[in-house]
Amino acid sequence: MNKFHGKCNLFKITFKYFKATIIYIMITCCSGFLTVESPKNELVSEEVFRDPSTANAAMLAIFSQMCNELGGPYSISLYTGYTSDELNCHSTDPNLKMFYNNKILPGNEYLLQELWSPGYKYIYGCNAIIEQLGKQKAIPVALSNQLIGEAKFIRAFWHFYLLNFFDAIPLIISTDYTVNSVSSRFSKKVVYQQIINDLRDAAELLTETYVAVDGISKSETRVRPNRWVAYALLSRVYLYNDEYSNAVKISSLLIDNNPNFRLLKDLNTVFLVGSVETIWSLQPSNKSGFNTQEGRNYILTSIPQIMGSSQTSTISDHLWNAFEKNDQRRVEWISSFQNYRFPYKYKVAVGSELNEYSVVLRLAEQYLIRSESKAQQGLYEEAVRDLNTIRNRSGLGDYSGPLDKNSILESIQHERQVELFTEWGHRWFDLRRTNGIDSIMIQAMSEKKSTWSSYERNYPIPQLERDKNPNLDQNNGY
Which family does it belong to (predicted)? Predict the structure, then answer.
């Protein structure tokens, strides 16, 4: 995994940096996804957003970096897989071991460089797009709405992830350095309300169709957010925020949108390009020599490595034993090299022909969101119907337990564990938001030959950021 070597304060990112990022992306990245020519002269921020092609490139730059650089699909699934009960860590890297043993120090390099800093960098870029396009009249309305909608969605996305890594966080909704550099942490309630507002705005601004590289024409490729993508994250946020009726309403919009979205019977096709189960995915660069970061880094072609962070992980016994007999997900989504089991949702380790994109949001989660939300409302038979839809697709029989809230919720959490493993931190976030984290993690940490303390459900605030911002307090226990 590449490392980000800069140690600048994230809130000192300026339009000069953002401008350079746009130019770099236009010159070097996303062949086949981004085809804007390199500008002849140096751009100032206002000029970037006066031209449709460069304004569009600013948004595409964020998508490209999210998939191909730090803070992407593999980083998030790896670190949360280590801190939860999903993955074994074979690496001797002390920074990785801190995550695996749930003994993360505030000075951990990866904590800052691959979670905190990338998240706020993407948020800053979205703020720049929102502010600048709000001033411009030269950009066509349809394109402007698409870009602002995408920016609000991504801003909500990363505030959501930072919130679930660190608990209370700075809420950054402008490019004003004088404000951002001394921001204190906002409560979960306040941050969630901003996330909800951004997602509602995004859903209003975005169309129901997916758009192509130009931001206007229709596309079959699901790599740029549309209204359904905003709804998919919004339903999750409503669930996390205990707004169960809203979660049911929004998830139902996606589930009922057949044939645009439907579950696939063949588990081996779920993560392929063109999958109708995909709601939103990130497109890798076709110049990288591989498809997804997940495929490249999880698939073992030898015994697990002990150096670095690539090909260093295996499926934990805790996860392996969670699968029921005849569960086809254990057959199709886990493979092995010798006796080492590894995640195999993505099948391509190397190869420049793009057959797989990194799936961020997919329909199976929406069934589980609706099932859990209905169970919380006491609609047990309806909750079980959605639960059975996911179970049956995986070759399992119907739920046969008692029709009471605790039993059904427990079964739903189990189903989320075996359906969504190593995808974008689901297992770790589920443990954090439910009451069972302590009992589960005490057992998991015993298997890791480590210990568990309740405060470890929150990652520590990076010390370098606290050194530069006196208003950033630390999470309890660190």
Answer: Belongs to the SusD family.
